[in-house]
Amino acid sequence: MKLTLILAIVLVGFGTLIETDPIEYPIPPNSSEMLFYIQRNHNKNTIVYTANFDKEGNLIEDKPIDVYWIRYEEDGRRMELREIEKIFAYGVKSSKIETTNNQYKIKLVADEKRDLLLVQQAPFKAVVHTLINNKPSQLNHLYIFADNSGFWPKVKYIELFGKDISNGENFYEKIYNN
To answer: How far apart are CA 49 and CA 36, in angstroms?
Structure first.
């Protein structure tokens, strides 16, 4: 009886959807290294993607992006991704584009269909480009809304926020997962 009650409480806790307005979320400190960040409906903790530079300001070829949590729900401290998070959720794969200088093809492990391009613009300055609403854009952040009521979270939709590469106009796209 006691075990059944504990299981019921745990399952009810996992079965709830939290609809939090991302406008109320904290924005990570803007640094020259920050490329973009991801926020989710489950809590205000944020995954941050930063450029990984050597001491001369060039992207480090074997690991051009550093990914970590800002745990806003735990005093805003930094926390490294767990291995399972790197493999299945928030990790990145990168490959240097040999025909260009300081550019890398980037794939988020959770969405290997979307093309991302890491471009170094100057020493200690890099950005990520992608298509947002079929327009070349600099990626700023993503918001992921997922249902955690099952064994694995099911992404309902993803929102992409960025700026037009040529004129700086804000771009937005909402992608539904059917």
So the answer is: 5
What is the mean predicted confidence (pLDDT) over 13-17? 37
Number of neighbouring beta carbons within 10 Å of residue 164 = 14
Question: Mind listing the pLDDT tens digit for each residue in 127-155?
Answer: 999 999 999 999 999 999 999 888 878 88
Q: Is residue 123 part of a domain?
A: yes
Q: Is residue 18 part of a domain?
A: no
- The string of DSSP letters for the chain reads -HHHHHHHHHHHHHT------GGGSPPPPP-TTEEEEEEESS-S-EEEEEE-B-TTSPBPTT--EEEEEEEGGGTTEEEEPPHHHHHHTS-EEEEE-TTSSSEEEEEETTEEEEEEEEEEEETTEEEEEEEETTEEEEEEEEEEEEE-SSSS-EEEEEEEEEEETTT--EEEEEEE--
State the total domains in the chain. Answer: 1
**Is residue 5 included in any domain, yes or no?**
no
Q: What is the model's pTM?
A: 0.85
Domain that holds residue 168: 33-176
The pLDDT tens digits for 25-48 are 899 988 889 999 999 998 999 999
Q: Is residue 119 domain-resident? A: yes
